[in-house]
Amino acid sequence: EKAPYRAQHAAMVSPGGKIPLGLPRKPLRIVVTGGAGFVGSHLVDRLIERGDSVIVVDNFFTGRKENVQHHFGNPRFELIRHDVVEPLLLEVDQIYHLACPASPVHYKFNPIKTIKTNVVGTLNMLGLAKRIGARFLLTSTSEVYGDPLEHPQKETYWGNVNPIGVRSCYDEGKRTAETLAMDYHRGAEVQVRIARIFNTYGPRMCIDDGRVVSNFVAQALRKEPMTVYGDGKQTRSFQYVSDLVEGLMRLMEGEHVGPFNLGNPGEFTMLELAEVVKEVIDPSATIEYKENTSDDPHKRKPDISKAKELLGWEPKISLKKGLPLMVEDFRKRIFGDHKDKGL
Ligand code: NAD
Ligand code: UDP
Ligand code: UDP
């Protein structure tokens, strides 16, 4: 281990344990790239609450200042507008590297930028980690499994990915990011952690990001039909954001490199998801079928045995419990704060 990290870190981990105890210790300095985005902003909330200092680095492509503005004025919080494709000089103890658009609509908007962000952006953040001896966590994705031929997916599965398809800027980009992380780990002794995140939802998701949960929720609230792509029998497993953030923090503080699947094993077809949204928002909501996008994975469900065993982590919030929490936030953002606007 590199000295600067070890010195700070020794004081914060329970003996033999992996979970931060919240005992008095020197606060860590932590960079969260993509910290103005959906997942990043929830992570920032937890890190600030824990007493650490956080620097958010974000180019605001899909992130928003509103997601972190409640920390403005806090001396332990700093927000830097910066694109990770450009080099960055900072002195910190940990780097959570999230910067990258996550929704297919966003990452396909400018595929060249997406792959640059994944490759050059990750390279820069690993170069930074190497120079300062910081611990580095990569938020990879279940997309590295592509259209999986193994179900559920374990971390040992190598995936089934189209290298020249419209999704490859993202899934091949993240695969390369994992390769870079492992090469910096093996070749430059950088302490790395790799999370493979499965579909995650919750408050602060972009309302019009085209992802299925945000689409269905926004459509049902606006009394529009929910758009089901293809026959709606494809599956996904949906994780509530606070479960993910807990998993990311345990991974960062623990001793294992990974990769670790972080996802909720509860698997739903898109038609079943539409039913849950109906129950939660509006029993009279309708469905409209649309043509599916190309290379859409048929099914996805994490095997989380590894995270359970080595991180002591598993998700706590089911779709039925988590969805209402997101709906509340979407209602406010779509209609303003007045809950009684005919809803
Ligand atoms: P998001 O789009 O809300 O957040 C991404 C953030 O990164 C945004 O704030 C955006 O402005 C910023 N960003 C993008 N490109 C950048 C660049 N070049 N330089 C600096 N900042 C940049 O997405 P999210 O759902 O919060 O995802 C966060 C991370 O988790 C991403 O790396 C994503 O690939 C990964 N992930 C998310 C999910 C999910 O379901 N949400 C699933 C798998 C993996
Ligand atoms: N880098 C950075 N901040 C740093 C150190 C490096 O952004 O504090 C970038 C650097 O510009 C380079 C990348 O990280 O493009 C990889 O750095 P590394 O030192 O591993 O490679 P080298 O610079 O030797 O090619
Ligand atoms: N999908 C859908 N209706 C929508 C948006 C997406 O039926 O309005 C489907 C999409 O075809 C895919 C699944 O929902 O099979 C998940 O899509 P999303 O973009 O949320 O995530 P990802 O494909 O990255 O898992």
UniProtKB/TrEMBL annotation:
Pathway: Nucleotide-sugar biosynthesis; UDP-alpha-D-xylose biosynthesis; UDP-alpha-D-xylose from UDP-alpha-D-glucuronate: step 1/1. Its cofactor is NAD(+). The keyword NAD applies. Residues 32-324 form the NAD(P)-binding domain. It is a single-pass type II membrane protein. GO terms for molecular function: NAD+ binding; UDP-glucuronate decarboxylase activity. Keywords: Decarboxylase, Golgi apparatus, Lyase, Membrane, NAD, Signal-anchor, Transmembrane, Transmembrane helix. Its EC number is 4.1.1.35. Signal peptide: none annotated. One of its GO terms (biological process) is UDP-D-xylose biosynthetic process. It comes from the Eukaryota. It is found in: Golgi apparatus, Golgi stack membrane. GO terms for cellular component: cytoplasm; Golgi cisterna membrane. Catalyzes the NAD-dependent decarboxylation of UDP-glucuronic acid to UDP-xylose. Necessary for the biosynthesis of the core tetrasaccharide in glycosaminoglycan biosynthesis. Belongs to the NAD(P)-dependent epimerase/dehydratase family. UDP-glucuronic acid decarboxylase subfamily. This is UDP-glucuronate decarboxylase. It comes from Physcomitrium patens (Spreading-leaved earth moss).
